[in-house]
Queue: 4 jobs
Job 1
Amino acid sequence: MNPKPSICVATHHASIQDLLNDAEFRSLANREGFLVELRLDFFNDLSDETLQQALAVFAPNALVTFRHPLEGGKQPDVTDAERLRYLQRAANHGVKYIDIEARTPRDGFDKRGAKLILSYHDFEKVPDEATLYSKIWQPMQAQPGVDVVKIALMPKSVDDTSIALSLYSGCNDNSVRASTLILCMGETGLWTRVLAGFFGAPFTYARGEGAPGTAPGQPTWRELDELYRFRDIDKSWNVYGVIGNPIGHSLSPLMHNSAFAELGLPCVYIPFKVEGKVWGFFQDVGQYILQGASITIPHKESIITGCHEVDPVAQAIGAVNTLKHFDYADEGYTGSNTDAPAAADCLESALGTLKDKHVLILGAGGAARAVAVGVKERGARVSMLNRTRERAEALAEELGATVVSHDDLSALRIDAIVNTTPIGMYPNVDASPLEENQIPKGCLVFDTVYNPLRTRLLELAEKRGCKTVEGLEMFIGQGVRQFELWTGKAAPRELMRRVVLDALKKRQK
Ligand code: NAP
């Protein structure tokens, strides 16, 4: 069995002095499961003496490299021989790893007790599979004395990252001497970093807290360690993710990973930025690694055509937000929608029952469809009010609802109002889809917007004496249902709520 993979934290410091003064990095110098990558080409005060000072602190966990200028190195005037001389000094001192680019001549280099990483970096593209395999990876791993082959590439889209799957399928088993680490840079390549251990690689790279990182898309070591539980991930784990674009600010990874950790489940949840066709991603990457997924904007509708089964609620809404691998087959996903029942749960828990209740929905987009289907399923009557009346009319006709205008509001008996427009969402926090005097006294007001937590609409509703429900409850509710669908276990709802709430409050500060 492979030992647990390590997290290699790349130094970003302009000088060795800065590095030595950095308490965060010093705390990693002896910490089990961590490596510190000393980028000698970054240091403007590099000399035999300062290197010695750095090694005196970091050697037990050091991975040392002096990057070649053609592969991102910062000191173009230093010769190969001089770079190698520094690396030899580090090896003589007894560091853990020495990383040398495949293009750098290594004549006379003796790795001593260190492990040798042979590396290849392309900051512009991903080569085609045949070139990568036979012209890059094979010659590297066949060289004597090589312990790790590291390949870092720049994908143009998430589809390009499938190259990591192709390469991993032929390595990191017992037939290949050197281990392989293949990293795709950028936001779309995040999964290749988080799943390095899943594929048998000995480590992955991270940046310091608040540091820029040495390659695009590097997560912080704390994210890898605490959010993703990187060091525990092996090939027995189940991988889930959220598929969307943009995806960088999604709180779903925090919510689901915290829940998996709380229950001690060997599961990890990763954001996947998918810009193009969503089923193209599943064909190239998703189907090989994902047991299930959350689907978000803009893929909720287009994902339906690729699902092998779609539950009736998702079918009625025309949108899927949850995928789960069939329990009885390796191929194919069932698609469902947890937004609709989560929205209905929010209203039901405040109103007692939805049977024969009159619910007014503001908006006629995707969220409006989900809320309308969810509350109608439980016996509510639905009216719709939308900026573009024709859109509301089309939806109302399809779902069996009525369309109203602002002028009708005072004459209607409404039990609950649900805002499904983005009005009031950050940064337009002073906006509200209804004026205070347009909100019927005594009705329940539920805003699906959850950034900010208390929207202007909810403040106005409170002033009118209305009960209110925050959009966060729907977000948590849909996540709880996803978690339970995937794992078959009761979700730790309170914990999920607390971590998301804390993160939102931090963001709002
Ligand atoms: P969507 O499909 O784009 O629909 C947006 C709706 O809002 C449309 O009906 C649009 O009217 C209306 N609208 C947008 N801007 C407006 C404005 N300035 N004035 C008046 N009406 C406006 O979006 P969606 O997928 O339904 O999502 C809408 C919101 O729901 C999101 O912003 C999100 O905050 C919330 N949501 C929350 C959760 C949750 O878990 N809490 C889940 C899903 C969605 P037109 O038809 O006239 O364009």
Note: The longest strand covers residues 115-122.
Job 2
Amino acid sequence: MKDAPAPSKVELAKEGSNFLRGTVEQTLADPTTSGFAGDDLQVLKFHGIYQQENRDLRRQATEKTHTFMIRAAIPAGILTARQYLQLDAIAERYGNANLRVTTRQGLQYHGVLKGDMKATIAAMNEELVTTLAACGDIERNLMACPAPAGAVHRMVQELAREIARDLQPASRAYHEIWLDEEKIVSTEPEEEPFYGERYLPRKFKAGIAIDTDNCVDIYTYDGGLIALTDGNIVRGFNLVVGGGQGMTHNKPDTFAALAQPLGFVPVEHAVEAMRTVVAVFRDFGNRSDRRHARLKYLLAEWGIERFRQEFQERVTWKLGDPVELPRAEAHDHLGKQPQGDGNFYYGLFIQSGRLEGAYRAAVRQIVTELQPGVRLTGQQNLLLTDLTQEGVERLEVLLRAAGVALPHELSGAVRHSMACPALPTCGLALAESERAIPEVLRELEAVLTHLGLRDVPVSVRMTGCPNGCARPYTADVAFVGRSLGLYNVYVGGRFAGDRLSDLFAADVKQSELVEVLKPLLMRWRWERQVGEGLGDFYQRLHGDRPARQTLTGKEQVVA
Ligand code: SF4
């Protein structure tokens, strides 16, 4: 019999961490160091923390100055005005005076110093916002459409909270380290009943979409539920599994994949269904090679039938056949929208999710004055809810005074753009993303305007590496960092999020990213059918190819 492969170092770090404690508390108390080392770097992630350094300063510094990214997990992205104002105040006090809305409805600070970590996390928890399980090998922030748009939306948002609660780790480490809660003295060994001492083989991303709106990009996650609706009623869910964006350049055995339908789940079993998918991953995911440790690789090895069988054996009810669905769109929820109760919500576009300067101040003033609900979208934007007509008018006055463009004034490419943070904070970045996308968008906007296509929606995404945090491979157009100043260009996804793109051009200089797209954009201008998006047009040009289920790290240029 073949020996089982040795567990990866991270597995041993988790196992040896005493249920997520490591030596974090001791290092926090040590004034002689600005950072953590060794296994604690893995442990910290489970607490929603990444140790980072400013890579811009790397060459000048004689020694590393560590700073920390601290991320809140906010199921369905729902906050009260009071919570938002507290998070905003923390950014000023302990972060670098900005808030970053993540692509998964979380909110993160960059630039927090070690000495301020505890105060930051305690202040967040004061308003019941946690950072626990926002990162790490665990079920991450549970996404759901955040729009306050009626009974179906309320139901999926509540379900997101319920699943998040169900899959929280049991360890008290977080409360002991950050919130000074008393250590429970017991003769019984501590247990982590669901996760065990090694937690998951890697991260697990999950979300809930609605059959009419895929704003959360459900096919890109390890596990997803799609609510099947009948008017105001949810009659069950399609369960989809095995999606994921990350891959590695030039490694053909790594790939982005779309989640596949596993079956129909009755409403009363939705929480158990998600827990069961996570449990299968926990028990069978790869624990020796982290590059292959996502659920999509288990799916590729097993095939969907074996996965379904394993799932079925673990539950007492019958998984039905998945329901065929018409293609859903992905609403951006921007601008003034009716809530259905006489009030309105208003979606604000936040470029790359980075809220800072006059814009952040204006949002703070709006939230202070109008006390709306605040919700984060999966497209890095903010919704302000429960507004009267007068509230909407006041909000627009304040935004204009701060020089903020209103959503209807944005071009179709800017409005639907996303970018990951990349340099200078992300340790994995190969190229710029958030800092580069404004210039790329300006050039793209100029070309599209010239072609009379300024207002046509185009989803544009940029990432600093192929890990794909801004979900590049389901967009109309994406730029994925190869090395400093160099990108691969992908084309051919679509708003419904149910199709992967193709590698359109490899190793393109940043200054030529738009130039390389120009011939395609011109053909799109002249040959597009009524309402045809860029990704759809591109795929029609190559209509003889089967749709992709995966996109590997070593593709040939197709165009
Ligand atoms: Fe960092 Fe890559 Fe994720 Fe961007 S996509 S934030 S560069 S890991």
Note: The pocket of iron/sulfur cluster is lined by residues 420-422, 426, 428-429, 433, 463-465, 467-469 (CB under 6 Å).
Job 3
Amino acid sequence: MLRVAVIGSGPSGVYTAQALVQQSAVPDVRVHVLDRLPCPYGLVRYGVAPDHEKIKSLQNSLRTVLEDERITFVGHAEVGTAGLSCARLLDLYHAVVYCVGAATDRRLGIPGEDLPGSWSATDFVSWYSAHPDASGRGFMLGARSAVVIGVGNVAVDVARILARGAHELRATDVPQPALDMLAGSRVREVHMVGRRGPSQAKFTTKELRELGTLPDAAVVVRPEELALDPAYADPGSAVASALPAVNRRNVEVLRAWAAAGGSGGRARRIHVRFFLRPVEVLEEGGRAAGVRFERTVPDGSGGIRGTGTYEDVEAQLVLRSVGYRGAPLAGLPFDPGSGTVPHAGGRVLREGVPSPGEYVAGWIKRGPTGVIGTNRPCAKETVASLLADAPALALRPLVDDPLDALRESGIRPVVWSGWRAIEAAEAALGVSLGRRSVKLHDWAGLLAAAHGGA
Ligand code: NAP
């Protein structure tokens, strides 16, 4: 029997577990999927926006995989701690696949970034997604205007949640404290700001277009700002025709909004801005009060250069949305430049040499890019490497029953029945609030539900 631990139960971890059991080269495989949290599904539960129900429903197919009899979910088991080191895992399993994602965010490195009121967008996402580490944060706190720095899909998500009325989110599983704070929000202006041009924005067209469908928000773009982009100014140009289809479609959506001139009479406005590079988060009374941007222009080779002219945008809430970043895991090699674990075909490299039995998949392998489905081929590549190594790996005798060993080292794992108990508690909470299932948002509540209130 080949015993494998997959660390992380997000899409990359679940697709890895699935690829391990859906193959015939090594028939007798048992997989334990470990997660730091008592709940499975990683960013599908704690990253996909609550109003994106179709993507969220992917949880149903991830659930089917985790309910396979050859797979065991082991929640609330944090790897990299004294009781559960990477070295210890190799005593318990023939192979370990790290699918730990990109646990932190990139920083801007500008003055004022750490002022109260200035956050990473991933903090905000975690909060409205009920991540227990983000419980109790006070994001809005009287803010009237918000700046979102970056023009990727996360920026679009947070801009949209800020611009939606709380009544639009009531039918989702958004945790009650977040819903209450959103209901009391006074944010009326949301500025989503790119340092380059519209043809270089990272968002996808479906997500961009959705901003124009919000019932209480108008989208405002500035034609003169868009026109700085050669691909916008002349759609027939060589530059424009060389663009990938998604960027061309983004430009068309923005062109249509510019032509419409913004629809009036809405409670909130989303300003989509370009060619503004953040240089400082401005302070007033010890809190963020706005962002100073330098105007930029295209440099002719896909980048930008500063113009030495500046614009201040008022904001009591500043969210930097400039990408996720992998974090080092104690005991595992890490390349700080790329924020990933060095690997060859998914095999972890220690000082350039494959480390027997250690693998990576997902964002910690290839960096934080791509959609959820990108994790499937990524996981398959890693599993192919693991299966090729399996004859040698399976020779190693294993000492302990892994779950007993975890319990002996003081870990109290949440297994599948515990997760089902959390789901039942969330359904009951929803009923008591007159809503659909509502997520539990703090450690105490999650663990009490998982362990039956004990
Ligand atoms: P992203 O797509 O990499 O976008 C990052 C944005 O930050 C870019 O606009 C980038 O501009 C900007 N940026 C980076 N450094 C900056 C700086 N120092 N100053 C100003 N701007 C800066 O990252 P993301 O939005 O976090 O998304 C991560 C991944 O998750 C993506 O693959 C995304 O598609 C995916 N995702 C998908 C969905 C969905 O499908 N609905 C939802 C959320 C996330 P430059 O281009 O100029 O560097």
Note: The chain has two domains: 2-103+326-414, 106-323.
Job 4
Amino acid sequence: MAQEREPEKASLISIKMRAAQGGPHERGGRHISGEERIVREGDIEACLHEMLERATTHQRGKADFMNLKLQLVDMDCVVYKPMLDFSECVSRTAEEGRDVAVRELVAAGVTETAARAGVAAILALPDSMRGAMLLDAVTGGRVDHLGNRGVRVSNMDVADPDAFRRALAAKGLQGDHVREALVLASKVASGEGVVAELCWSDDPLYVTGYVGSVKNGYRRIPVLKQRNCGIGGRVFFVKPETDLDALRDYYEEQVVFITAGAKGYVTEKD
Ligand code: WAQ
Ligand code: MG
């Protein structure tokens, strides 16, 4: 009897880039830009080209150090999570935006004390961190002990780039910031024990941010910081009883593909 052969799976490669100015991050260089993608083998070159371009022409300054890591993705370890619903709030100034952020965080299930602590924690940063701070969603106290590094969410991308682009375009959205933020926010929201996320960009000219949660989706806040400010950040609000080691492991290690779930888009492994 002829042996049945498994259908061949396409190889996917994870590409991670981080760039700094004044030397490597680990030797005190200032973080300029970081990006990660999971691409088909044939798209590696184009992706590397884009990353190089990005690191050398970034708003935060020109990088003089760049680290690249390429790794085969084990498709048997991949999980799929839906993209958060996208909707937009109104804010014209940073102050207004921060009030909106607090309101949105409370609507998502964070206490007002914790919501205000989250905003204050980002405002108090002397410079941007590479990762996110974890705050207790009830008390607002910081619960990770990772200092200036924070928790870095990694190993995620869109399940189907074309479907994702179409889903964004249908809402009048385009560009790296939104795509990356939606992917990251969707993975963050899917973490066990997480109530909501607060984020605003560290790119000096990009004043937009969002509050993300499974409950209310991705709530974009058009203005959340002053223009020309190079400090941004992320806060993940967690329930008090959360298993923080498991959550951190999920964020850092688990490969997650985000699906643009509307009808007609890829929703499962196919
Ligand atoms: N994991 C955890 N925290 C991160 C990560 C990550 N992979 N990447 C960035 N951060 C933290 C870090 O502290 C940065 O300083 C901060 O988030 C901001 O990162 O139009 O561009 O990449 O709807 O500058 C949101 C609005 C844009 C998009 C967010 O963030 C829109 C943005 P940035
Ligand atoms: Mg940035």
Note: Confidence is low (pLDDT under 50) at residues 262-270.
